[in-house]
Design brief:
2 domains, alpha/beta, 24% strand, Rossmann fold, 5-stranded mixed sheet, 13 strands, Dihydrodipicolinate Reductase, domain 2, binds NADP nicotinamide-adenine-dinucleotide phosphate
Length: 265
């Protein structure tokens, strides 16, 4: 696959390396800090879309920039009908607008707030466990997350998603509570705590606890490579999507999340 990388920060660098290891050719990198057109793993380096001659050769693009830039980038990629995998977070209030652009251009887009394949499988494991546990009132449910001491927000977005999934699966649990409690939690509350310490890249754990025993289900990230690998795997899937739809003679869908990729797997 010929791949374009939009945004060359912490994630862009990891994506370049992991995509190259999987045998993909990086044809263009949009890097705001590019000083000149040089060659990096055979890629054309450009500071803007207009300067990226090779962009049109890309089978897919992966975008990790920042919330202020992402919608403009999606529009540029959509206009060129380059399938786009979007890792940037915190723009989802503009999803309807983006959907209209993608549909109108006949392009394709896949987005996910968390591209770690492990975290997305973890969501499913937790949902299933919560569904089973709902029938056993002896077991209470709760959770915690740990991140490095430079993380700006608490709780993490991933913790919020985990809490949503538990509440959707357990009739007994209705409301997440995040802060330190100066009272016992109510039975319908799901307590989920945050710890900020050291250099921890991200750990999330769910507890099902009874008087007799505990089940703890935990995901621990080692580094950013899990996000990069998930984004590259999704780009491979998205680039082949229209061909597969044409073969099956179905009207192609245009906007996907990582759940669609996982379902297909
Ligand atoms: N979905 C996931 O799994 C996942 C995982 C990790 C991170 N993220 C999200 O991905 C985004 C990027 O993360 P990161 O850790 O790579 O951040 P980062 O290190 O700050 O990198 C972002 C890079 O994109 C550049 N940029 C900004 N606007 C651009 C534009 N219009 N065109 C091209 N480049 C542009 C930035 O330049 P400047 O430095 O000049 O602004 C910076 O070099 C964030 O929103 C983060 O929350 C998502």
């Amino acid at each position: 696959m010929k791949l374009a990388i939009i945004g060359y920060g912490k994630m862009g660098g990891r994506i370049e390396e992991i995509a190259a290891k999987r045998g993909h050719e990086i044809v263009a990198v949009i890097d705001l800090h590019a000083k000149e057109k040089t060659t990096r793993l055979g890629a054309e380096i450009a500071a803007s879309f207009d300067a990226a001659d090779n962009l049109g050769r890309a089978d897919a693009a992966i975008e990790f920039t920042q919330p202020d830039s992402v919608v403009g980038n999606i529009q540029e990629l959509s206009r060129r009908r380059i399938p786009a995998v979007i890792g940037t977070t915190n723009w989802y209030n503009r999803l309807d607008e983006v959907r209209r652009v993608i549909e109108a251009d006949g392009s394709r887009l896949l987005y996910a707030p968390n591209f770690s394949l492990g975290v997305n499988v973890f969501y499913r494991v937790v949902s299933y466990a919560a569904q089973l546990m709902d029938s056993f009132p002896e077991y209470d449910a709760g959770g915690y997350e740990i991140h490095h001491n430079e993380k700006k927000e608490s709780p993490s977005g991933t913790a919020k998603t985990i809490a949503e999934k538990i509440i959707a699966a357990m009739e007994r649990k209705k409301t997440p509570v995040w802060d330190a409690l100066d009272r016992p939690p109510l039975p319908e509350e799901l307590h989920f705590a945050s710890l900020r310490v050291g250099a921890e890249p991200g750990a999330h754990a769910v507890y099902f606890d009874s008087a007799a025993d505990t089940i703890e289900i935990k995901h621990t990230a080692r580094n950013r490579d899990g996000f990069a690998l998930g984004a590259v795997r999704c780009a491979e899937w998205l680039a082949g999507k229209e061909d597969a739809d044409v073969e099956r003679d179905v009207q192609p869908r245009r906007v996907f999340t990582i759940d669609d990729f996982l379902e297909d797997m």
